[in-house]
Amino acid sequence: MAQKTILMTGVAGMIGSHLLDDLLAKNYKVIGIDNLAYGKTINIEHNMSNPNFKFYKVDILDFETLKILAKDIDTIVHLAAVKKIGEKDISYPTLSVNAEGTENILKVAKMWGCKVVFASTSDVYGMSPDLPLNEDGDLLLGPSMIKRWSYAVSKLYGEQMCFAYYHDFGVPVVVIRFFGGFSPRSSFAWSGGHVPIFLRAILNDEEVVVHGDGSQTRSMGFVTDLVAGTSLAIDNEKAIGEIINIGNDEELSVLDTAKLIHKFANTGKELKIKFVPMSDVFGKYKDIMRRIPDLQKAKRILGYAPKVKLEEAVKLTIAEMKKGK
Fold first, then answer.
1. pLDDT confidence of residue 325
2. 178 phi, psi to nearest 5 deg
3. Catalytic annotation on 151?
4. For residue 316, what are the CA distances in angstroms to 183, 223, 273, 320?
5. Any alpha helices (H) in the chain, and if so which ranges?
6. Residue 190: its pLDDT value, please?
7. What are the domain boundaries of the chain?
8. How is the beta sheet containing 242-246 ordered, strand by strand?
């Protein structure tokens, strides 16, 4: 089989850098781009000398450069995005960059005949009460005046744009809705999710900030499971034209997650939790109380199932963080 070449946006981020490791191990060629707004070169520096990898500091809004880099590419894996925000942040970049950047990727895919694997998010399900969250289910987003929804709206627009290019122009697309994931390379900002933030706070003997009473639940997976699902989607022809949930279907409350991390961190210090009212962080935004994926479609189409349990993932991450990696 001929060696395939992948163009990956957001290559220096948490998922991107681990996916890069996986693809290079499978003898793909990878051209990786990142503007390093969120990603870090330390995440990919161990691959810089690999002859099958080329890195360029490029923004997804740079259409002319994307045109050049996408020539002779088999698949574009589009991970780059401006992340979710709180009510005190500006929302325009989230909306504009995610919308224009995604259309740029689709334009060059159409130009050169590439397949696109688009990274969407479980945020698009919003407050849907239909659990577990199914790809064919209705989506329930909140009021437009609440900034917190801008990330979900931008990703939902990206999904619609993908299917417009698929149906109207014949661009083969796969939409992956990632549920929460983490690794030692996670962003330790709020946009990276609660697990990395809790890990760092507990290991540094700092207060763990919990929004609300911590009863809201999440399904958090280890990055290797997110990578495995993405890798399967790259080559699977049955995935074209589909939306597929990827993640872990274990469900645990935010408060119990903090307790679990504290247990395995084994710092000898007490767990210090600071409860912050939701309204202080999100204004009128109502936090999503439960988020758990239906993974039946991923299993049926991709043969996907998560392999790393949350407890094991937390232990692995703590061990790496304690080593200073």
1. 45
2. -75, 135
3. yes
4. 8, 11, 23, 6
5. 14-25, 63-69, 92-112, 150-169, 194-203, 223-235, 254-265, 278-282, 296-302, 310-322
6. 57
7. 5-182+221-247+292-306
8. 53-56, 29-33, 5-9, 75-78, 115-121, 173-178, 242-246
**Catalytic pick from 125, 151, 166, 304?**
151
Q: Rounded to an integer, what distance in angstroms lies between the CA atom of residue 149 and that of residue 84?
A: 8
Q: What is the distance between the alpha carbons of residues 267 and 115, in angstroms, rounded to a whole number?
A: 47
CB 117 within 8 A of CB 78: yes
What are 298's strand-pairing partners? Answer: none
In this prediction, residue 23 carries a pLDDT of 98
What is the per-residue pLDDT across 278-302, written as a single tens digit (0 to 9) for each? 777 666 777 788 899 999 999 999 9
pLDDT tens across 182-239, in order? 999 887 665 568 999 999 999 999 999 998 999 999 999 999 999 999 999 999 999 9
What are the backbone angles phi and psi of residue 244, rounded to the nearest 5°?
Answer: -135, 125
What is the pLDDT of the chain when averaged over all its residues?
A: 94
Q: Which CATH class is domain 5-182+221-247+292-306?
A: alpha beta
- Quick one: DSSP state of residue 204? T
